[in-house]
């Protein structure tokens, strides 16, 4: 299970079928995902957008094997995540998925390089040196490899996180608001890197964001509302995304989550 | 601010429970010690107060023998029967009866073995016919009336299963007695005897067996109604004269218990030292816990500061938490202390101090529990509280909470100075001529060194974890690397956690070195100075009848039997323990290296003393020493020889004749069996054992076995000490649990991240476990190094007290290291499980 098996090129890197996720019961019951069907094609950079409480993070967590679905199936390649136990899921995450979180991506005790190779070290695998060099050079952190996270700026830390996500040549990289904590300049660096990893290194990236500018870097944008994919946009630009977002009526959000409306559209 | 304190307490129940546990354990040990010693003194006071007679008359002693006077080491003094009639005529006397009491009377159980009194005396008494004068109450059967009849106390009856009507065997200092058990009785109100056994005979039989015909050991006098005991005592004293001591019941109880309280004090101090160690170790854990609580609440506290709370308010808020934790911990500790006291009672019971009756909980104990618990908690929380107050308000705005690493320079300096002082004191103590000063110097040095090492341990932790810890990544790869990094991440915390274990192990290993050295010295002493092929001694440390020696002398192949007895007398105005030996066979049995004079003229009024006694008292060969015997007679001894210190024989040696002349009891402590030159020991052994087997109190041992027997008391003491120290190690283990649990909470997000990028649950558990092991091994290594230093220094400083050899028990040290590692593994179980159970998403989302 360390490397993706031989698959037909047509098979998407990841796909969800009738994904349903329900939190709570009775009065507190919230449907975060409502029978979502979604494909993430290989070599594509997909952004997921939507108001708070629309289910975009839940969709990512379920697709990435971090959370279980109530109904439906999530596939990474041809592997059905619901068929895996915790151990197998852990191995799958380690070997076939890359992660970039909004904050706290790095272990403070390890150097930048050690953080980058962490998943492979955990697996006891030697990194592919040529690939690793390419990744490191692309993020532009070669002179920072021996530094600890506290000695790096926020943008540098996120780039290290991106490098870690890609270093194991995963089937797919999931990025959860990777620029949420960064200033626009550092954010742009990170997004440039993600885009070039897709364009030049043929990686597959799925990114959750609420920033139209960030979404503008993607090849495709999925819009979620109330746990459903309500729209899709190919070759987006920041302006078009912003326009589309304005169309979301805040009143609609009330059906999703009680306090969602108050948070929606704040940023 | 009190409301925030209260809320914070409720919000951190688990963390506080962990630190509270340290307080509970520390307080529990203090309370347990106090309850135990209170119970101990109550048991003995009850025992002493169980004198029914209003006034007691005994032979006046020329000097106070102290506690030893109540034991068999003393010399017997009698009261003639004629005195009873004289006292009967005194006005106000309602009843009077002479009584006999002596030790060395043992009941044999159905298997012919001595009823185990666990070191407590087996006492023989005469049965008082005057009920009002008797401390005993008949429970079953009837009183003994003649030579063939005997009574025993109900506890002994229960232990042996004997019932009235059985024929039982009793060993006395004289002959072995077979008699019918005609009655059982209870002693005092509760029957508590602290393990001792009581055997009663009728007065005439008791005199024959235990004193001498017509001689009593005391006379009990009952006052008529309305007569004041003090006044009666004065009147009786006027009649009997100054040769006799007349004491009222309360005076007697008082003097007995004041003698005893000194011995009790020793046990008390001994136990409290361990309680102090436990608390000291507990302090580290509390300090650690509060430091971590404060670190975790950085943002919360900074927010309070930003909102306008003053430094003092923040400090008080943290101290307020400590106060509540201290109060709750003390209360629980009080309850747990009851359990510890019960445990101590059982432990001391196995060492021969049996306590019946209920545990005593005094008001003082309760006050001490709260004083100690609350104070220790407040003191340990003060430093973190101050740190909390210094938190800049801006910390509230920071996203990542990074515990600021403070410089270690001050600790390095303070620690280095303390360590240097400690080492200097250790060296000084080792070189000191005087054992007493040397030992106390070593003690002070040890304390300074422990404090120094505690201060230095964060400084030393880094190189240790970098070097020895480097094994972890080698063996366990990334998991090991993460564990190593986690341990080294906060050297102060790692060090404080390890320090608790360090102290416990330092003491355990120091005692191991001393114990091993003492045992080696005993071996050396016995092989070097005992010439006799066999030694006969009592397994229960009691003196025995001279018949054994007489019968052994009859065995073919025995060249000589040399008895060794103990006694007391005042030599030149100071009470001294005397060893009495047979001058004719001394040289054949024991080898003494003489510095001056010879052993030849020991017979008659000769005296041999060891070097340090001779130096201390200013005696030289040829000097005359004034002797005052217990019954007040003046005698003289002449120093005939000075020998090198020898633990087998003691420091002051006289002839058997001298001891008898001083009123010493004719009971042997040891017999040295010297065989003829052409006899193989193995050939004679069966015949010798045939003799000793008839006396259940005594055993025949060859030199090796004799040596082992001497060593067993050392081992027993070590066991006792180690059992006490187990508590501090337990608290240390708790500290590791605490630290790890806190670390897991602190690193929740890291753990979530690790799990997200593919660290398996098993790997995560191993990471936590390895961190625990490396911390505990660090503590153990520090402890073992310090302990070995202390042990070596103390052994050397006690070289002239008989610890001539120096042994560092390396295998045992290795076991300690292993145990430390196991403690680490066990301590990690809970925190590791907790870490592994964290839900990945929740952990990542945690702020």
TrEMBL record, chain A:
GO CC field: membrane protein complex; plasma membrane
Keyword tags: ATP-binding, Nucleotide-binding, Transport
Annotated signal sequence range: none
InterPro entries, alphabetized: AAA+_ATPase, ABC_transporter-like_ATP-bd, ABC_transpr_LolD-like, MacB-like_ATP-bd, P-loop_NTPase
GO MF terms held by the record: ATP binding; ATP hydrolysis activity; transmembrane transporter activity
Domain ABC transporter intervals: 14-251
Pfam families linked: ABC_tran (PF00005)
Domain of life: Bacteria
SMART domains recorded: AAA (SM00382)
Keyword Secreted: no
PANTHER family: ABC TRANSPORTER RELATED, IMPORT ATP-BINDING PROTEIN
Annotated protein name in UniProt: Putative ABC transport system ATP-binding protein
Species, as recorded: Blastococcus aurantiacus
Automatic annotation (TrEMBL), chain B:
Domain MacB-like periplasmic core: start-end pairs: 17-238, 494-690
ABC3 transporter permease C-terminal domain ranges (all copies): 273-393, 723-838
UniProt cross-references to PANTHER family, sorted A to Z: ABC TRANSPORTER PERMEASE YTRF (PTHR30572:SF4), MEMBRANE COMPONENT OF TRANSPORTER-RELATED (PTHR30572)
Membrane-topology descriptor: Multi-pass membrane protein
Family matches, as InterPro entries: ABC3_permease_C, MacB_PCD, Macrolide_Exporter_MacB
Name of the protein described by the UniProt record: Putative ABC transport system permease protein
Family from the record: Belongs to the ABC-4 integral membrane protein family.
One of the record's GO molecular function terms: transmembrane transporter activity
GO-annotated cellular components: plasma membrane
Transmembrane segments: 16-36, 266-295, 322-347, 367-385, 413-432, 444-465, 495-516, 717-745, 770-793, 813-832
A Pfam family annotated for this UniProt entry: FtsX
Species this chain originates from: Blastococcus aurantiacus
Subcellular location: Cell membrane
Entry annotated with the keyword Cell membrane: yes
Keyword annotations of the record: Cell membrane, Membrane, Transmembrane, Transmembrane helix
